[in-house]
Amino acid sequence: MRKLTRKINVGGVEIGGGAQIPVQSMLTVPLENTSAAAEQISALARAGCDIVRAAVPSEAAAEGLEVVRKTSPLPIVADIHFDWRLAIAAVRAGADKIRVNPGNIGGRENVQKVAQSCLAAGIPIRVGVNSGSVPKDILEEFGGQNSPQALVKTALRELETLADCGFFDVCLSVKSSSVPVMIESYRLLSSQTKSPLQLGVTEAGGRENGVIASSVGIGALLADGIGDTIRVSLTADPVYEVKAGISILRALGLREGGFHVISCPTCGRTVCDVIGLAETVEQKLSELPQPKKTVEVAVMGCAVNGPGEAKRADFGAACGDGMAVLFRSGEIVGRCREDEIVQKLIDFAQEAE
Ligand code: SF4
User: Fold this and answer.
1) Quick one: 46 exposed, middle or buried, by C-beta within 10 A (0-12, 13-18, 19+)?
2) Is the pLDDT of residue 310 over 90?
3) Helix, strand or coil for residue 18?
């Protein structure tokens, strides 16, 4: 069962309080390049992203934010390091949330100034604690280690500072590049606060290792009912972050909708290119408008076992030698040539609501 947290609103997208778990990503292009930023936001929105974050390291970036926000289909979170003045500039530019890294924004006084500005604008703050954010005194208290206890104490101290300013619309994160540390940190934090939590493994790596580390860390916590929004951090095109995030939620039954390809691992019975076929079908389905209810599309490697193995699929193809058997809900409904398989599946998909 999901742990009930306080609900916050980020430009119309709810986080916490039992709301659907939003998937976040981050721009890899600078906000100063307004056309590239707008283009990347559109690509992320098409991939299913709910909220996008962007670095605001300068006044020029804050000015870019103001331009980009006007046409953005997604709420934008301004990511601030070092300079509280930039946080205030980002609020004025229309940011839907501010993310501050408490360790480098210059102490309690500056956090309070940012809080007052966000309070006036009616937008929330994320306190993003990571290994570089733990203040010296807490680090010393925990023997110089970025332990889960140190990360959590840092997050709770910031929460208290914000509460002292009457600011409660706070989302917390305690990310680590170590999956065990990240899991333990969020478990500990979740037991001590009702603030919504953003889950993520920081510096997770590239598409392969990063997706695995994030799936294990984020997945373990979500399975425990912990977590209100997620970001998969990858050294890759951020569209992959969104796809991975949605796949994690779907795997746990926490995200409904869209086409979902299930395909067999192939074996000695396979006589056609199931791997290439599954990739092509997945790509083509991702280009179609996504259905509200999840539609499972199977690509299987043999006509004998395929339909049976893919019983839960809404429809699919089980490939034989130069041909395929087409099936819906486990029942065979026709046959086609190998070169017709992709189009037949797309035709079925277009009939789905
Ligand atoms: S569906 Fe057929 S080809 Fe694919 S793994 Fe199962 S038995 Fe092998």
Assistant:
1) middle
2) no
3) coil
144: pLDDT strictly greater than 90 = no
Q: From the alpha carbon of 265, which atom of ligand 1 is closest? A: 5
Tell which residue, 224, 228, 286, has the closest CA to residue 258.
Answer: 286
DSSP state, residue 78:
E
Residue 290's pLDDT is what? 86
- Residue to probe by mutation, ligand 1, list 264, 274, 321, most atoms within 8 Å of CB: 264
Segment 77-92 mean pLDDT: 94
Mean pLDDT of 272-295: 92
Is-same-fold flag (8-251; 259-351)? no
Confidence of residue 274 (pLDDT cuts 50, 70, 90): very high
Q: Sort 273 into a burial class: Cβ within 10 Å, 0-12 / 13-18 / 19+.
A: middle
* CA-angle at 84, arms to 105 and 94, nearest 5°: 130
pLDDT tens-digit series, residues 154-205: 999 989 989 988 999 999 999 999 999 999 999 999 999 999 999 999 988 8
To test the pocket of ligand 1, the residue of 261, 270, 325, 327 to mutate (highest count of ligand atoms within 8 Å of its CB) is 270
Domain coordinates of the chain in residue numbers?
8-251, 259-351
Question: Could you tell me the distance, in angstroms and rounded to a whole number, from the CA of residue 310 to the centre of ligand 1?
Answer: 10
Instruction: Determine the pLDDT at residue 102.
Output: 64
Homologous superfamily in CATH for domain 8-251: Dihydropteroate synthase-like (3.20.20.20)
Q: Whose CA is nearest to atom 5 of ligand 1?
A: 266
Domain 259-351 in CATH: superfamily?
Sulfite Reductase Hemoprotein, domain 1 (3.30.413.10)
Residues with beta carbon inside 6 Å of ligand 1? 264-267, 269-270, 300-302, 305-306, 309
When pLDDT is cut at 50, 70 and 90, the band that residue 351 belongs to is: confident
Report the nearest-CA residue for atom 2 of ligand 1.
302
Minimum-distance ligand 1 atom for the alpha carbon of 270: 3
Distance CA 243, CA 138 (A): 37
Q: How far, in Å, from the CA of 319 to the mean position of ligand 1?
A: 9
Q: Which atom belonging to ligand 1 lies closest to the Cα atom of 302?
A: 2
